[in-house]
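Input:
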Amino acid sequence: MTKIRRLLAQETWSPYLAGGLLGVVGLLAVGMSNSLLGASGAFENLAGILGKAIAPEAFDNLYFNYVMPAEITWSVVLLIGMFFGGMLGAATAGTLRWRTKPDEQWQSIFGPSTAKRWGLAFGGGIVLQYAAGIAGGCTSGLAISGGMLLAPAAFLFIAGMFASGIATALIVYRRSY
Amino acid sequence: MGNMLMALTLGVVFGFLLNKAGLTKYHKIVNVFRLTDLAVLKFMMSGLTVAMLGLYAMRSLGWVTFPAVPATYIVGNLVGGLLFGVGMALAGYCPGTCVAGAGEGKLDYLIPGLLGFLTGAVLFGLTYPSVFPAISRLAAYGNVTLGQLWNVNSWLLIGLFAGMSLFLFYLIDNGMIRRDRLAVGK
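Output:
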């Protein structure tokens, strides 16, 4: 019991343990709900809900009606859970608090400017979401969920992601790479 | 209702694990691309190995039927992945880890991060008819698995993936794949 409590209070777990348990979560999603884990799809559902509330005509299209319906789907509820899961993880390790300062490594390369961080965080989010749309999913919905089904799409996506991720890091970090 | 409760529960565990694996940190994500900290790779490959083994075993036992297999259309999967890697290396998160990181109180994840994803989602949804159908028809194979596509036994592929993962973990943990620059400037 104390062992479990000590483990819960640890800030960082072995990636093998956390990853293995993620595999179990993926299995439970299929076994209990016949659903696949994912994150980017839920943002499409949410964007549709918000869009229909603000500009109903513009969002009254095939995509937001049928492809990624503007509804609270299973994936949206999963996404809400993930938010609280992150919170729970930080709370158990005592690291839960509002943080405005970017990651230290970020600061060492981009400087302390919060505006710069927020700009790249926003721009990066747009690129990530659009890319996930084209690819058919993100790291969870395509790489993990597709990979566990042995979908070729997942391995193509992972290969593309690592290739350009490494190239981008090389450019961003230059001499510090 | 029960299904939604399951989604919420699994979501909490998923977010919790992303946090505990350290994947909600900018440097963890970027350093896998700098090849100085391969935790993300270990996390993904061990998750995939467990899930593949379990899923195909559960199907063999008749416990589950597969949900729709994500569609393979080579150009789109690859181009999407290439674009995704750029965003991930710049922002230091992906959609799932951004949400979990937002829950930890990281304001750059919570505000510009989530707004960025919503904006990207709007852009994709509104440009969908002129972009997606065309790209998803290029080199398209439909909702196939590798086993079906190559006409090989899936267990062989799973064994291969598991073996490859274990071998890679062995190499990494014995210092045979290593770049020593950890934090920048150190």
